[in-house]
Amino acid sequence: MSELIQQLFDGLGRGSEYALIALGIAVIFGVMHLVNFAHGELITVSAYVTYFMFNNDLNWWLIIPAVVLTASATSVAIEFVAFRWVRGATDFTQMLTSFGVHFAVQAIFIMYVSASFKSYDRPGWIANTVTVGGIRLEVIDLVTIGVTVAALLGTAALLRRTMFGISLRAAAADFDAARLMGVRSDRVIRGAFLLAGVLAGIAAVFVLMRTGRASPTAGLTPLLKGVLAALIGGLGSLSGAVIGGLALGIVEVLLIARLPAAWVGLTNGFVFMLIALLFVFRPGGLITVGKAERV
Amino acid sequence: MNPETTVQPERTMSPALSKSPASMEWVRRLGGPLLTSIVLFAALVLGGLLYASGGGGARDSLVTQMLINAIIVVGMQIYIGNTGVLSFGHVGFGAIAGYTFAIFAISVERKSVTVSDAPFGLSEIQWSPLAAIVAAVVVTLAIGLVVGLGLSRTAAQSGAIAATVITLAVLFMAREVAVNWDELTGGDRAGLSFGIGDTLESRWPIYVALFASLLLARLYGTSRSGRLAAATREDNLAARAVGHNPATHQTLALVLSIVVVAVGASLRVYELGSITPKFFFFEFTLLTLTMLIVGGRNSLTGAVLGVVVITVGNEVTRYLAGPSVDSFEFVFRPGLSKLFLGLSMLLFMIVRPGGLLPDWELDSWLFSRWRRRHETKPVEAATDEDTSLGSEVLKAESITVRFGGFQALDDATLDPQPDEVTGIIGPNGAGKTTLLNVLTGVVPSTSGRFSLGSNDLSSKQTHAIAREGVVRTFQNLRLFGSLTVRENVAVAALHRSDSGDSGSQPSVEELLVAAGIWDDRDRRASELDYGTARRLELARAAATRPAFLLLDEPTSGMNEAESLAMTAQVRDLARLVGAGVVVIDHDLGFITGVCDRIYCLAQGTVVAVGTADEIQADPIVREVYLGSVADDGPGEPRDS
């Protein structure tokens, strides 16, 4: 029993990262109908910023704000350079645009830094555990979950209480109608990328603390998990993305714990297969949400 | 797959050409694709040989690789180009084929070193390369069919994004299995490799495969299934509304494309002499997708052009990047090719998303030139006032639709007669379009039934209802944008309903004349002005030879003169094809001018029914329209 609780907790820790990334992907999908395959590059860029700051003897307390800032700025920059030009284009065009950005950014790091990974020191407390009632919990999981809850509450407040948040939700529900009602599409889209960037930045801090390395493909795995989580939640649904992320994290941890040793390497494969099957039987995603948030 | 498709009788490829000489028809069906494939093949091979004759082993192998890449890209074009579904999975299928080929073709001695414990006794056998390619195709096809069933289901129902994600899952699954199933695949680093001297030496197998792929791709592109897939690509709902089942054609396109990709991938492995999980993964996906979209994914010529442009571009970048053209240069600039490809993709998506040649094929170009010179305008078919419209009653009984808490339709009952034009009026939000959506299977009803004659349609899907003879137009135009006007009509005629009397059917050309769009016949639908586009939509619906035409605000956005012309055309076309007509509009003046019988809908309920005069005198209708009836002349510009 305590083992299961431990695993669930571990899953929530992982899932929190996925949820933050998925939420960003869902926010952008909501306003642009774009599945952003370049979202992982926010983490890649942040990883190299971390590496360079570390090489200059700066510590994690400075790196954390720098990472969040980098991810946000990169997100807005990518929108400015690429996505603004394909607004309203077909899904096909938009997806391939993000695919192009994904590879261009990767290539720049391969060419001007290195194709192989660069390591930096992870914070000392990362491997620490605390024992609560006989259950051993990792500190990093606790911190991730705590910060994610805070970030989600903050995002919820932003979406419900501020004019920007209301415009964004209106645009996600019906972009054209929102425009006719005076919502400024430019500002909403840019705001959505900024918000997605901040969320990805927070996720990046934890991803980078766990991995301890920067590589041109650092963002690939988090991106895939984020996209999958957003899909499970029915793309475009914000609460669905969060639930999808947490569910994905838990399923992964449970699969790793339960699968025979020789099959553990196939965990991602199984997750993919489950999701593909999900789409065959429920093309709208796992969670069907109210129309207010759907596109 | 839908069983209904298989029982559809074979029809001529294009009714448009039923009157041209039989020899010409034959030339078009087989000769056109053959000509295109020969020209494309010759261009690729001769260009390659010319470049390779410059000397050097590096050039030689570059040309070989280009030709094999061309096979794979052509395979991808069959699916991605014709269906418009973005697939990352084809490289995953390539991986499956590549490994299957390798495990069968590599010599036993070689395998005893690398994968001595291969399951199913695979380390004990060695097949000829040709047999191994066949095995690769069979295995990949078996896996592809399972994926394809899910793929076509999602692509048809929830659009391209979910389907794309499934293809991404294929790519990653293939890689994960390749990395983890060491006994079979040699694992992540070693992979599988051929012994020295066992690899592909001659280019002849590549030539044969390339030519066959080109011909297959072009034959499919011009086939009935290929044209239907393209119509679905342009507008999924509109394609279903004229009777096409998207899943059928997408599955066929997938099967053919997997066969071609599997052959190409096997040859690639044979030529390279080894395979690792890294090879058929993201970078190869980037390379092949960039080739496909830079050239123009919708056309075979575009795909081939893309292969050449990207291959040349890659070489030029490599050359510009360093002082030496030595192939070792690449080792020092590992990201360069990726940057070039990534930026090319980005740039084309922004500047020219359709690619260099979005829709051009040699044979269609030649044929349309020939036709323009030899074609004469058909005489407008005479329809006299006594010709009846349709012959079967459309019956809707107690249709109720609820969206959440909102009651869009409440117990609506109608029975439009086949020999009349039936109007449905009502203010905005009365449920008119919802009713039409229910009758065409776009929106499921909460309760109630509807039927055509004795044929119950209540639980049928959109495309099945259209084939039974109930066909609609859309309030917001939905044409097949990149197809020409003639193709829009011809593609709708492919599923003509077999119900109704056996009178002669008007040809596509006669329909074009009747709808008044003959002069625009070779223009693309996306270029048409609003009024012409509306008439095309009407002609396209009529081309399915429906028992009932349901028109959703056919004159919205038109001025008085255009509306009157449209009104006459609606009747003419309905007589020509022998269909009953239901027109929806919120303009009482227009409806009373056209219709024999009118239903008035308010808040989802039928509140009145009668002739134009009766409806205009009806106090309830007057109330619904706030007393504005008397001033509302026919055909005044409406606020839609």
Number of strands of chain A: 4
Largest sheet of chain B: 6 strands, mixed
Secondary-structure element order of chain A, N to C: HHHHEEEHHHHEHHH
* Helix/strand structural class of chain B: alpha/beta
**Oligomeric assembly:** heterodimer
Coarse shape of chain A: globular
Task: Supply the number of helical segments of chain A.
Answer: 11
Instruction: Give me the count of strands of chain B.
Output: 12
Gyration radius from CA atoms of chain A, angstroms:
19 Å
Strand order of the largest sheet of chain B: 8-9-10-5-11-12
Span between N and C termini of chain A?
41 Å
- The number of helical runs of chain B is 26
The largest sheet of chain A is: 2 strands, antiparallel
Mean pLDDT of chain B: 82
Which pair has the most extensive contact? A-B, 49 and 44 residues
Features:
A: 295 residues, mainly alpha, two-stranded antiparallel ribbon, 11 helices, 4 strands, 70% helix, B: alpha/beta, 6-stranded mixed beta sheet, 26 helices, 12 strands, disordered C terminus
Structural summary, described in words:
The complex is a heterodimer of chains A (about 300) and B (about 650). Chain A is mostly helical and about 300 residues long. In chain A, about 70% of the residues lie in helices and about 5% in strands. Chain A is built from 11 helices and 4 strands. Chain A has helices spanning about 1-30, 40-55, 60-80, 90-110, 140-160, 165-175, 175-180, 185-210, 220-230, 240-260, 265-280; strands at about 120, 130, 135-140, 215. In chain A, the strands form 2 sheets. In chain A, strands 1-4 form a two-stranded antiparallel sheet. Chain A has a two-stranded antiparallel ribbon with strand order 2-3. In chain A, helix 9 (about 220-230) crosses helix 10. Chain A is globular. The relative contact order of chain A is 0.20. With about 650 residues, chain B is α/β, with parallel strands linked by helices. Chain B is built from 26 helices and 12 strands. Chain B has helices at about 5, 20-50, 55-85, 90-105, 110-115, 130-160, 160-180, 180-185, 205-220, 225-235, 235-240, 245-270, 280-295, 300-320, 330, 335-350, 360-375, 430-440, 460-470, 485-495, 510-515, 530-545, 560-575, 590-595, 610-615, 620-625, and strands at about 190-195, 275, 395-405, 405-415, 420-425, 445-450, 455, 470, 550, 580-585, 595-600, 605-610. Chain B has a 6-stranded mixed beta sheet with strand order 8-9-10-5-11-12, sandwiched between helices. In chain B, strands 4-3-6-7 form a 4-stranded antiparallel beta sheet, with helices on one face. A two-stranded antiparallel sheet of chain B has the order 1-2. In chain B, helix 2 (about 20-50) runs antiparallel to helix 9 and helix 13 (about 280-295) runs parallel beside helix 16 (about 335-350).
